[in-house]
Every structure is written in structure tokens, then in C-alpha cells.
What does this fold into?
Amino acid sequence: MIRYTATCALLMALAGGAQAFGPGQAPANNPLASDRAAAGKGEELFGRNCQQCHNSRGKGGKGPQLVKGAWGPGGANSDGQMYELIAHGRPGTQMGGFSTSLKDEEIWQIIAFLREEALRVKAAEKLVQDDDEIPYY
Ligand code: HEC
It folds into this structure.
């Protein structure tokens, strides 16, 4: 019992001492969502860490695209899922985890960038679609 209490106290101390959004307690939604400056930093980080596989602006290359469909606006994949994938990777694939090379805040900055890019891609697609609907005479 004493040991159990001590473990609990230790875990609580660790959790309390962790950063604002520490490991294992990723919020479901990006705490930096709609923070333009964060998205700007994320763009830079994406270019340095992810682009070589996911192509420019996450449009997909060696690794899958990260801005449309389930990753698009209103898509099924949450910020929390994206965070987990970036932090811990997908074992057995080329997608390694970044939890040791990037800070939590930097991972959320990348997510802010990708979500903003997803909105931009959707808006651009809609423009093309609307344009297609203009009849030619
Ligand atoms: C060495 C190449 C490589 C790098 C670098 C890389 N990825 Fe990936 N990533 C992949 C591959 C390959 C997959 C698909 C894994 C699989 O087979 O399921 C993937 C999967 C993902 C997925 C899940 C996509 C899905 O639809 O299943 C996310 C999200 C992701 N990567 C984000 C990132 C981010 C953000 C970075 C930069 C911090 C990054 N990746 C860096 C290769 C890479």
C-alpha cells in the first residue's frame, strides 16, 4: 500500500512537472489551433522534418498526403491522432516517431500548419470546381 501510494505520488509529480501539454496526455484538439504564428513556425518545421517524405505542403509523395480526405477539414482524423502519429510514428513503417527530436509545442505547430494547409487546399479545389460550373458560350 505504501509502495502504491508512493508510485501515485511520483506519477502525479511527473505529470505536474511536465510541460503544458506533456507526453501521454495529448489533448484531443490542437491547443495552438488558429494561431497564425504557430502555423508559420510549423511550416518551417515541416519543411525541415517531413517534406522529404510527405512532399511539399504535405501533398503526399513517398509518405501519404496529410491535408485531404480524412485529414481534410471536417475529416475523421483528429488533431490528437495526428499528434500521436507524429510523436510516436507507426511501428514497422518508415514513419518514425519525433517525440525525442521535436518539442510538444513544435509538433502542435506542425499540426497547426497542416490544418491551415488543408483549409487552403479545400478552398482552392472549390475555386476550380466553381470555375468548371461556369458555362462556355
Ligand atoms: C522517412 C520518411 C518520413 C518522414 C521523414 C516522415 N514521415 Fe510521416 N509517414 C511516412 C510513411 C511512409 C507513412 C505511412 C506509414 C504506413 O505505411 O502506414 C507516414 C505516415 C504519416 C502519418 C499518417 C498518415 C496516414 O494517413 O496514415 C502522419 C500523420 C505523418 N506521417 C506525419 C508526418 C510528419 C508531420 C512528419 C514530420 C514531423 C513526418 N510524417 C515525417 C514517412 C515519413
About this structure: Residues 49-50, 52-54, 62-64, 66, 82, 85-86, 90, 93-95, 98, 110 surround heme C (CB under 6 Å). The chain is about 55% helix and 0% strand. Residues 104-132 form the longest helix (29 residues).
